Amino acid sequence: MIIRMEETAAAGAGQAVTFSLQEGDLVHVLHPDQIVAYRGPSQGRSDRLMNVKGMYRKKKLIRADVSGPSQFTAALPSGYSMREIPIGNNEDLLYDFRHVFFYTRGVSMQTRILKIKNMLVTRDAVKMKFSGRGSIGILTQGPVCEAKLHPTEPLYINAGSIIAYPENAKLDLTVYGNHLASQHMDYHWKLTGEGYVLFQAGRQNQRLERDMNDDGIIKRFLREVIPFGGVFIK
Fold it and tell me: What does the chain look like in DSSP terms, one character per residue?
């Protein structure tokens, strides 16, 4: 299967991704409202209700099945980019469904129920596991980074930045560092195990921009040293 994605971007205006599908290609688009242009036979796009068990309070989601030969352009929000990830038969990563923009023919999805403590933090009940042969497209804020896990040496990653992690990895919600560091940082996942974890490196950009454009060093100091200063001091 051949899918060509041509990316164009304008400052502050989001991003557009163009898919070119060949004869026999099939792409399941999970955000069909983002398709802004389509070239091909009318019957090349077929929207349908997709019932994903145990997901989003058992509501049905609409997906668009687009087949080739055709071409379509999808709009992405400002600050987001798309990453295509190949899926093999031995894929063991669990993905946040909100990050998944498309998956191709030959790829199947299975749900994995999270532990209660993980549900409370992620505000999600399930993760998605993909298997088969093909690829998926994920939406990320900033570049996608990959880190190898170790069975005993923990890796700490911002809880809101993780895209995918191995199904058999051990996760614990925590903070790290000295008292001042742990008091002011966001919650992190402490991960150990085998395999690789994917995370996005753009979620903190807004916070840095706010600090760079702040109107005074005193306000920045108070926001950092006072517990919950970032909430009460604007």
Answer: --EEEEEEE-TTS-EEEEEEE-TT-EEEES-GGGEEEEES-GGGEEEEEE--TTSGGG--EEEEEEESSEEEEEEE-TTEEEEEEEE-TT--EEE-GGGEEEEETTEEEEEEEPPHHHHHHHT-SEEEEEEESEEEEEEEES-EEEEE--SSS-EEEETTTEEEEETT-EEEEE--SSHHHHHHSPPEEEEESSSEEEEES-TTHHHHHHHHT-S-HHHHHHHHHSTTHHHH--
pTM for the whole structure: 0.74
- Integer Cα distance of 234 and 70 in angstroms: 49
Separation between Cα atoms, residue 76 and residue 191, nearest integer Å: 30
> Which has the closest alpha carbon to 30: 107, 91, 87, 86?
107
pLDDT digits 0-9 by tens, 158-198: 888 888 998 888 888 888 888 888 777 888 889 999 999 99
Q: Enter the tokens of residue 203.
A: 């979620």
With beta carbons less than 8 A apart as the criterion, state whether 45 and 64 touch.
yes
